[in-house]
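Bumping my old thread because nobody answered last time. Still need a sequence for this structure:
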């Protein structure tokens, strides 16, 4: 997920509604302001947060196979491209790719990435699109006419609800067309200890990332959260097979946001993120429900992480 160009009004409306609900929730999309995005980048380099390095190694070893039947002149379309780092593994293995469409919400991130790619891949046509990939956006017709290879790494799919993930995969299928394929990275269920450590690193970066949401509310909505009165909590929800991030109120207290009082009981939590963990079967079922079928998959052993290639 990436920083969204939300207006202050939409942010305020969502925050007040989420904190007035039972249980209290906030959308994970609000974790990614400039500071949250920088903290997430740092989390990716902690020893505990295995997904980034595991997926990178998996893509490196699978890239040649992923590339083997990509038709000459295809277009690679990445959803939430950020710095386009993992993309290079696919581009290096797939010289037959004619163009790269990077869909990214952060104009800054995409313009930096495009400058580097244009320099390093002089024969590749690069086409940045600054957009939220969950909303409609246009790919130019001359690129749409070619075979599309979608790329959605990082297990970002796990931050959506099941219905949200189905809607998203469905819309990507409509956008990419009937001759396309979609390469998706998805984190897999594994031992609870490793999962909990990944979302509660020793250095406290994930805790800062989570608490930054309260600081963002203070900064942007004039809230009066005392951050020291909330604790970061990462929980494994075994029934739903997901990691949940919460912010737990350490005492009974009332916080004010844009003039609205929000009461907290001691121990009451704000649910800020779900990170779904899949099995091969649960991911297949999700893809099927969105009109895709899994054509091939690559799975790393320990820690377990998967790259799925989907076909319509
Ligand atoms: C972006 N997303 C896939 C991350 C995840 O693992 O769910 C977000 C994250 N939250 C805490 N740490 C990382």
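Sorry it took so long. Here it is:
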């Amino acid at each position: 997920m990436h920083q969204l160009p939300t207006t202050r009004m939409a942010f305020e409306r969502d925050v007040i509604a989420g904190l007035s609900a039972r249980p209290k929730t906030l959308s994970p999309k609000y974790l990614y302001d400039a500071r949250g995005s920088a903290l997430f980048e740092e989390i990716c380099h902690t020893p505990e947060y295995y997904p980034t390095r595991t997926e990178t190694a998996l893509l490196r070893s699978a890239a040649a196979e992923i590339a083997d039947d990509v038709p000459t002149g295809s277009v690679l379309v990445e959803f939430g491209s950020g710095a386009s780092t993992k993309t290079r593994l696919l581009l290096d293995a797939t010289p037959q790719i004619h163009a790269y469409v990077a869909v990214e919400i952060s104009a800054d991130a995409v313009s930096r990435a495009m400058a580097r790619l244009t320099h390093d891949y002089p024969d590749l046509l690069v086409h940045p699109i600054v957009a939220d990939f969950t909303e409609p956006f246009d790919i130019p017709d001359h690129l749409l006419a070619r075979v599309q290879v979608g790329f959605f790494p990082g297990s970002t799919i796990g931050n959506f609800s099941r219905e949200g993930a189905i809607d998203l995969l469905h819309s990507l299928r409509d956008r990419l067309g009937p001759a396309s394929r979609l390469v998706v990275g998805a984190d897999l269920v594994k031992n609870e200890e490793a999962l909990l450590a990944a979302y509660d690193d020793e250095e406290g970066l994930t805790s800062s990332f989570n608490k930054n949401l309260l600081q963002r509310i203070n900064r942007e909505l004039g809230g009066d959260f005392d951050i020291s009165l909330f604790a970061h909590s990462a929980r494994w929800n075994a029934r739903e097979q997901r990691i949940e991030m919460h912010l737990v109120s350490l005492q009974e207290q009332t916080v004010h946001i844009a003039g609205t009082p929000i009461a907290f009981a001691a121990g009451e939590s704000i649910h800020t993120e779900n990170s779904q963990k899949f099995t091969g079967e649960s991911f297949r079922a999700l893809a099927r429900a969105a009109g895709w079928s899994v054509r091939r998959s690559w799975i790393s052993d320990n820690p377990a992480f998967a790259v799925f290639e989907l076909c319509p």
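The first helix runs from residue 8 to 20. Let me know if any region looks off to you.
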